[in-house]
């Protein structure tokens, strides 16, 4: 639902855009004075805070240059402006609900661009006389879902967490488009950098795998050379003369270091295999 009661708070959906639709439909058939009267109804509506779609209606635009131009100017002020943009003569035509709404829109606009705003700044911008009146307005905005933040009564400021977006003036579109393009370019650059790092990582992993495979191949070749350097041993590494006590897989490290070397607390027994000493076998392995 566009408007609902949730946890004791009035929550608006998109600044009252759904409520605006009924006025947009009516404006398509209203002309002249009827259209101007419809605009005032919209501006006084307690749930409508966006007006862009109404401004796009042809009958509303055609009020320009007629006796109803002030109604169109007032609608533009509510859509894009703040209290300070309101001419004194126009301010005199506002009823209480309309004046309160424009003050709310003024506060929302300021809160959308600042994280912490002093009370006196808001009071001056929205023509609010007392701190009590300002706090009541801020609390109303929070309960209506137009603003989220914390009031600091001791320091007399509000810390803003979120404020609804207002209508964007057509003159602002090029600037917004430029900002979006800059944001897109930045993201494109970041993506390219991340992809480059990912490729470099994959290449490094491939190189490490290739070096590991080459090293394993060299080790296997050296082991095979050692096996051939002991012709009296079979391929399983056991001695043909088992009485000599050789086992190639078990005693190879000690063969490489010479007869009688101690390894792991055990002394190699037996003789060096024919074909070279343990030192020579060690040199062959190297």
From TrEMBL:
One of its GO terms (cellular component) is COP9 signalosome. SMART domains: PINT. Residues 263-286 are annotated as: Disordered. It comes from the Eukaryota. Keywords: Signalosome. Residues 1-165 form the PCI domain. Belongs to the CSN7/EIF3M family. CSN7 subfamily. This is PCI domain-containing protein.
């Amino acid at each position: 639902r566009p408007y609902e009661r949730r946890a004791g708070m009035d929550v608006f959906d998109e600044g009252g855009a759904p409520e605006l639709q009924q006025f947009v439909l009516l404006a398509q058939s209203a002309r002249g004075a009827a259209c101007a009267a419809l605009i005032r109804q919209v501006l006084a509506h307690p749930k409508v805070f966006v007006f862009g779609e109404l401004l796009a209606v042809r009958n509303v635009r055609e009020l320009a240059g007629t006796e109803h131009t002030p109604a169109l100017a007032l609608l533009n002020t509510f859509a894009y402006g703040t209290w300070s943009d309101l001419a004194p003569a126009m301010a005199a035509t506002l009823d209480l609900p309309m004046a309160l709404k424009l003050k709310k829109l003024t506060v929302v606009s300021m809160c959308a661009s600042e994280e912490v705003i002093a009370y006196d700044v808001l009071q001056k911008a929205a023509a609010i006389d007392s701190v009590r009146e300002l706090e009541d307005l801020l609390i109303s905005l929070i309960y209506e879902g137009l603003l989220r933040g914390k009031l600091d009564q001791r320091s007399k400021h509000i810390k803003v967490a979120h404020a609804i977006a207002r209508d964007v003036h057509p003159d602002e579109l090029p600037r917004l488009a430029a900002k979006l393009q800059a944001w897109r370019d930045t993201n494109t650059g970041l993506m390219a950098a991340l992809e480059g790092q990912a490729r470099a990582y994959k290449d490094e992993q491939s190189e490490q795998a290739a070096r590991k495979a080459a090293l394993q191949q060299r080790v296997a070749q050296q082991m095979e050379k050692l096996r051939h350097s002991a012709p009296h041993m079979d391929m399983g590494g056991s001695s043909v003369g088992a009485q000599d006590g050789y086992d190639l897989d078990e005693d190879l490290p000690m063969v490489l270091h010479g007869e009688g070397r101690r390894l792991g607390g055990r002394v190699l027994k037996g003789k060096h295999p024919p074909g070279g000493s343990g030192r020579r076998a060690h040199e062959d392995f190297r």
